[in-house]
Inverse folding.
């Protein structure tokens, strides 16, 4: 487990359910562009009975960037199109793991036509 000063992945919670990923990351990139290397966005849902907030996971390059991000966005108020205010919360992500990038090409990629042709040949014969 990473120590408290080694953690670099945070979650930005209590975002408006209608906020888009591009809108949020335009706001984040205005101050923190190039200071993180991985991000994920989970959109929220809004219905008359239940509200699910949007959230964003961001993995920064350095722990110092995490502290500055938390200082700026913790308590930041987002306003949706109806005028409702949402106060964002920044926390360390429960899991500090980040998915690996796939560098290996899938061997089955592009083989669907080959398989369909051989199936047609079997039915014709």
């Amino acid at each position: 487990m990473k120590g408290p000063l080694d953690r670099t992945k945070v979650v930005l919670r209590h975002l408006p359910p209608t906020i888009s990923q591009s809108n949020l990351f335009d706001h984040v990139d205005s101050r923190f562009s190039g200071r993180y290397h991985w991000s994920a966005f989970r959109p929220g849902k809004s219905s008359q009975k239940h509200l699910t907030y949007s959230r964003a996971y961001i993995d920064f390059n350095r722990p110092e960037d995490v502290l500055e991000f938390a200082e700026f966005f913790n308590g930041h108020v987002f306003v949706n199109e109806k005028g409702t205010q949402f106060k964002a919360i920044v926390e360390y992500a429960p899991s500090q793991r980040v998915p690996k990038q796939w560098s290996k090409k899938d061997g089955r990629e592009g083989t669907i036509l080959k398989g369909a042709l051989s199936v047609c040949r079997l039915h014709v014969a």
Q: What stands out?
A: The longest helix spans residues 112-124. Helices lie at 21-32, 63-73, 112-124. The chain has one domain: 9-96.
